[in-house]
Structure formats: structure tokens, C-alpha cells
Amino acid sequence: MELFYHPASPYCRSVMMVAKALNLQVKERPIDLSKDEQLHPSFVAINPFHCVPTLVDNDLTLWESRAILVYLVDKYGRTNSRLYPKDPKTRAIINQRLFFDHQTLAARLEDYYYKMYFEGAPPGGAKLEQLEEALSLLNGFLIANAYAAGPNLTLADYCLVVTVASLEVLQHDLGKYPAVVAWLEACKGLITDYQAINEDGVRMYREYFEAGKVDTTGTAYGV
Asked: What is the pTM of this model?
């Protein structure tokens, strides 16, 4: 199994942490986005959308991080794994949180911060309000339950934690959301190799923002 990735990509980090949780032997293939290695013909032949993360598992090639997370647990997780249980209702809640992160929280983070860093947009305004609304919703989820989709750590947490960690490293004020802060600290202590995979990656993520190197189209960094 091969994973083509960039450590600054939040989406790659979520996949890498789930692979660690499942004790999978993954050949990590770094793609240097600053050198446009994602556009090299050999990589485009694997993934014509030329984004990371991209997983190659024998005859299966898969991109879109949330699809990769589900595949890894379905194929390699224990029967009825707590990360993604078979129960349809539980899965529905996890799926909702995954889509909430994709379409709402992560999307609003990018819409607000990318425009500030790369387009010179002023801080505050409607886009910040939309981001705060998404954080308030997440805080509500975490008041109701210890983790994003219930009483146990699931794929929803592995997905959402990289988004919240990105907000943290961008020095977004999370203090208004105590349930989010408590959950983030709990995830840091529970997720295998969190420090090595996520915290080093988010620092690089911030450096790329400050240097203006993040792909603002989202094409290379995937979803």
C-alpha cells in the first residue's frame, strides 16, 4: 500500500493518523507541492486530478481523504470497529460529521483565512461570522458527547481534529468554545503519533500560509 502525501496537508494527516491507528504498513510517498511534483506525468497517470492524499492499494487507486478513511477501516479495521461501526445509525452520524467538516467547517476556514492571507481581505466580517457559526455547531456536538459523533473516538474525530488544529496554529481564538478545546486536548493524548504526524504538519501549514505557498485553489491539497 502506498500513500502519496504532503505533510502540511490536513487531509493527508487525517489519513496518516488512521493508518497508524490500524497498524497498517504504508509506504509513504511524499509529493513536494512547492515544486509542482503533483503535475509530474508519472503522478498524473496515477491520479489525473493530481491531488494529495492519494492511496494506491494493489489495483485500487483512491483520492478524497474521507473516502480513503472509510475504505481503510472497512477493509483493514476490526469487525464493527469503533472507528466506523457497522450500525447504520452510528455510521450516519459519523458520515454527517465528515460531511460537516468537508462542506462547512474546513470550507469556511479556507474561505476566511485564504482570502486574508492571499487576497488581502480584512479580518472580520461575514466570512468570520460563518466560521464562528460552524465552530459553535461543533461545540454543541461536543457538549452533547465526548467525541464528535458519540461517546467514542471515530473517523469523525480524525477528520475534524486536523481542521481544528489548523485553526489553532493559525491562532484563531478557540477560547469561546470550551468543549472544542477540551476535545482537542483529549484527541492529542489519544491519537497515535499525533505529535509526529499532526503537530509538525500544522506548523508547516502555518509556514506555508505565511510564505504564500498554499495552493489556494485546493487542487493539489485535495479534500
From this structure: 0.92
